[in-house]
């Protein structure tokens, strides 16, 4: 009897948490997107696919920029079937290859006349190296999106008002950029193992935030605004490369306390669609609200400029 009572109490507390503390707000914008074009990186599953689905439902022409053709083609079919919007297509993009980024941009600019939304959603949590010899997370999570955004910037300006939305994370707080390490190792930190891998992931999210902050400064006076965000604790395949025992350890936590990808897409959609937030360009959002308590390292203008210049050099932009 006591076991049943405790079980019932636990279930009641858990349901209360799901309805309150763990419940994420919804994007309230009713914007329609007919005649608009959006790119979403990493849209074959998870938050990216949920974001693409909603933009397609609102009438946008949606480009799924993904590495895995098979998964992306399946996502395209699912979205078209669910929304009835036939203007959903896949274009090959591997953010861990600067050549792939350049090829994608060339193909897009040649085939598409406008770009209203660029959503830098893709991310990886895995150690390794990119095709160009950079640390995988620094290269794919930051450099790939940096180069992609700059190559598409003139089209965004010509289509204005337009927006760049980058999915970052509150884990930026555990990041710490060492530019001397970046120059010497072409990565954000030394070493491997889970602790260092997670540190590099946090570093890449800090890069996302500093990039958005500096981009907003450089875009002042244009019709392009940019935002970055924390999507929440979301069940995605980001951790698919974790070791077996680590997956076993975190699986109950993910099952109980992480939310579905549709919930995780809401702050992305808010940043992409909500009217009136243009003066907040460059800001970091969480739960569909701008954060005013950012750590100083995420608002360091010298670090933001240094990261921009280093990223330009790494990407061969002069």
Largest sheet: 8 strands, mixed
Number of helices: 11
Helix content: 40-55%
Envelope shape: globular
Give the strand order of the largest sheet, numbering strands 1, 2, ... along the chain. Answer: 3-2-1-4-5-6-7-8
**pLDDT below 50 for ≥5 consecutive residues: which ranges?**
10-19
Structural class: alpha/beta
Kindly state the mean pLDDT as a whole number?
Answer: 89
How many strand units?
8
Q: Radius of gyration in whole Å, from Cα?
A: 20 Å
Helix/strand order, N-terminal first: HEHEHEHEHEHHEHHHEEH
Proportion of beta-strand residues: 5-15%
Terminus-to-terminus distance: 72 Å
Structure characterization notes:
The chain is an alpha/beta fold. It contains eleven helices and eight strands. It has helices at residues 2-19, 46-57, 69-83, 98-111, 136-158, 179-185, 194-218, 244-257, 261-264, 266-273, 301-315, and strands spanning 37-41, 61-66, 88-92, 117-120, 162-167, 224-230, 284-286, 289-290. The protein has an eight-stranded mixed sheet, sandwiched between helices. Helix 5 links the parallel strand 4 and strand 5. It is globular. The model is unreliable at 10-19 (pLDDT under 50).
Give a quick summary of the entry:
This protein is an alpha/beta fold and 318 residues long.
Write the layout of secondary structure elements.
Layout: H1 2-19, E1 37-41, H2 46-57, E2 61-66, H3 69-83, E3 88-92, H4 98-111, E4 117-120, H5 136-158, E5 162-167, H6 179-185, H7 194-218, E6 224-230, H8 244-257, H9 261-264, H10 266-273, E7 284-286, E8 289-290, H11 301-315
Helix pairs in contact: 2-3, 4-5, 5-7, 7-11
């Amino acid at each position: 009897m006591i076991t049943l009572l405790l079980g019932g109490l636990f279930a009641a507390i858990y349901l209360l948490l799901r309805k309150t503390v763990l419940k994420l707000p919804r994007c309230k914008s009713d914007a329609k997107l007919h005649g608009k074009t959006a790119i979403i990186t990493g849209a074959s599953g998870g938050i990216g696919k949920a974001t693409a689905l909603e933009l397609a439902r609102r009438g946008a022409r949606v480009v799924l920029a993904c590495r895995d053709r098979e998964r992306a083609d399946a996502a395209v079919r699912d979205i078209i079937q669910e929304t009835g919007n036939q203007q959903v297509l896949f274009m090959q993009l591997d953010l861990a290859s600067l050549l792939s980024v350049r090829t994608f941009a060339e193909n897009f600019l040649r085939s598409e006349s406008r770009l209203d939304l660029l959503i830098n959603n893709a991310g990886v949590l895995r150690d390794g190296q990119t095709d160009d010899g950079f640390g995988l997370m620094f290269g794919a999570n930051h450099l790939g999106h940096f180069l992609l955004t700059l190559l598409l910037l003139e089209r965004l300006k010509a289509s204005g008002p337009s927006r760049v939305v980058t999915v970052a994370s509150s884990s930026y707080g555990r990041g710490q950029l060492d530019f001397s390490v970046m120059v010497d190792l072409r990565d954000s930190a030394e070493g491997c193992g889970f602790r260092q891998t997670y540190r590099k992931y946090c570093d890449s999210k800090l890069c996302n935030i500093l990039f958005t902050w500096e981009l907003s400064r450089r875009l002042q006076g244009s019709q392009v605004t940019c935002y970055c965000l924390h999507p929440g604790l979301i069940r995605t395949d980001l951790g698919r490369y974790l070791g077996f025992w680590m997956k076993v350890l975190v699986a109950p936590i993910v099952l109980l306390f992480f939310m579905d990808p549709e919930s995780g897409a809401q702050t992305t959609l808010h940043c992409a669609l909500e009217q009136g937030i243009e003066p907040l360009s460059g800001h970091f959002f969480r739960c569909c609200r701008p954060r005013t308590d950012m750590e100083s390292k995420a608002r360091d203008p010298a670090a933001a400029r240094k990261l921009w210049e280093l990223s330009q050099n790494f990407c061969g932009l002069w």
